[in-house]
Write a structure and sequence with these properties.
Elements lengths: L8 H4 L13 E3 L2 E3 L16 E3 L23 H7 L1 E5 L2 E9 L9 E5 L13 H4 L4 E5 L17 H16 L3 E6 L1 H10 L7 E7 L14 H17 L2 H11 L2 H11 L8 H11 L4 H10 L6 H4 L7 E6 L10 H8 L7 E6 L6 H4 L1 H13 L10
Length: about 375
């Protein structure tokens, strides 16, 4: 999700290749060198985008949960105790399966896919609400959360996309809507673009990333200008002592909390649980290697290349206070243009919301997501 040279989950956000490096922090002894580069466009942001090509009826009460009825967020430890393990290609993958009181099998299942450095527990404020009417799954991608972080593994977007597809086909085994944030959104796009897949019924993209890291190629002079810096970052992170120093400093509790405060629009959402959600997996064996591999690896497929060929329903929700993938940056502008070009795409800009809308302002996300889900066409129950 982030583009500063930081080593923690939500902090480094390699998924934000188009926001550039705001705070390059290299740790040498007690010296920190900061490089601030802003890529925000000088053009004013639209105050509101409510373009919708797929009609969302506010009267769909069966899929809309009122504020009075909306259940409390799940506790982090509660989520952890409910998680299970799925073995994929010899690796242990952590996941959650959660069903509320309504077991309506005519509705699709939902698979929640986190962003860079996050995990299943980052959906703590969404799972119970969505599970009122849907079977909800959430997964820790390989290299994150409680899933394995294999030594020497070369991470790439295509691997995560295949993991998602295999999970849908082998574990969920029903039509599924993929809901992703940041780099998780991009993994969902790549999975849904697979010509052989028949299981994905829809996509929900929350501040979608343009690539696995900063080297994603877009036609933007600012990215080209930053190319030398990006290669310098790669060089520094490939020096184990430097990478370790950066990683250890960023995951310190106070530093991490300050970075999260800059990522979120609603500062009240940055609580101690959130800090633990991001910090705990960063202490696991293999976390540093995963971080370096992801940041220095290939950016992977670009959504600009994949989405034009898609016909399945797509809901795009975008926080307008995102400093890493701003709505007026290259990727944000591309997604803003989609509803006028593709009738299967709906877009809503969420005011006062940062890079992680689902945890930042879950109420605004549910307000748009639930009606959209209720209007999806009914599909067969079993994936073939």
């Amino acid at each position: 999700m982030v583009v500063a040279v930081c080593a923690s989950p939500l902090v480094f956000l390699p998924s934000s290749p188009f926001a550039a490096s705001r705070n390059l922090k290299k740790l040498c002894s007690n010296t920190i060198i900061s490089l601030n580069i802003g890529l925000q466009s000088s053009s004013s942001k639209p105050s509101c985008i409510t373009i919708s090509s797929i009609k969302c009826s506010a009267s769909s009460t069966s899929a809309i949960v009122s504020k009075e009825e909306e259940p409390l967020p799940l506790e982090v430890n509660e989520i952890k105790t409910m998680c299970k393990t799925w073995v994929w290609r010899g690796y242990n993958i952590n996941y959650l399966s959660y069903q509320g009181r309504n077991n309506d099998t005519s509705r699709p299942s939902l698979l929640l896919v986190h962003g860079f450095g996050a995990s299943v527990t980052h959906w703590r404020r969404n799972i119970a609400t969505l599970a009122q009417n849907y079977r909800v799954y959430a997964i820790d991608l390989l290299g994150f959360g409680a899933s394995d972080k294999p030594e020497g593994f070369a991470y790439n977007m295509e691997t995560w996309a295949q993991l998602i597809l295999d999970f849908v086909n082998e574990v969920i085994q029903r039509p599924t809507v993929l809901v992703g944030n940041s780099v998780g959104s991009l993994a969902c796009v790549i999975a849904a673009a697979d010509p052989s897949q028949t299981s994905i019924q829809g996509l929900v993209l929350l501040n979608c990333a343009g690539g696995m890291n900063n080297k994603a190629i877009v036609d933007d002079w600012r990215i080209k200008l930053l190319s030398p810096l990006l290669w310098l970052v790669d060089f520094l992170l490939n020096q184990k002592s430097i990478a370790s120093a950066i990683f250890n400093r960023v995951k310190q509790r106070e530093n991490l909390k300050n970075i999260l405060l800059s990522v979120y629009g609603n500062k009240e959402s940055v609580d101690e649980d959130l800090v633990d959600i991001i910090r705990t997996p960063a202490d696991a064996e293999g976390a540093l290697d995963a971080f370096v591999s992801i940041v220095t690896g290939p950016p992977g497929p670009n959504p600009v290349q994949l989405i034009p060929k898609m016909t399945l329903p797509i809901l795009v929700l975008w926080g307008d206070q995102d400093p890493f993938t701003p709505i007026d940056g290259p990727v944000g502008r591309y997604f803003s243009s989609l509803p006028s070009q593709k009738p299967n795409v709906s877009l809503f800009l969420l005011e006062g919301v940062g890079h992680c809308p689902h945890d930042d302002r879950p109420d605004l996300v549910h307000e748009k997501l639930l009606p959209w889900l209720s209007n999806l066409p009914v599909a067969d129950n079993v994936v073939t």
